[in-house]
Amino acid sequence: xxxxxxxxxxxxxxxxxxxxxxxxxxxxxxxxxxxxxxxxxxxxxxxxxxxxxxxxxxxxxxxxxxxxxxxxxxxxxxxxxxxxxxxxxxxxxxxxxxxxxxxxxxxxxxxxxxxx
Length: 116
Known about the structure:
By secondary structure, the chain is an all-alpha fold.
């Protein structure tokens, strides 16, 4: 049951990521946004998706909500790295970027779980 909750929350978070990234791509081509705006948008998408996934996990599990939120955020991060590695075929991320993304995903999931 507990693994199913994390997987359901993770699926929700990735569905939200897909929709948000499509919206960001539309805005990029419509308004000719710069690289800084796109980078900021991607950060917002990661944090928001992890937040909503953690929020959903916390709503389903009524005990230790923040732990289920952080579990969702960390699973999101691990899957993000795995897909990135599979697509590129190599490590294509600086260590600073990997650590920053780790804390964004874990923090967003934890905050979502805490506020659920």
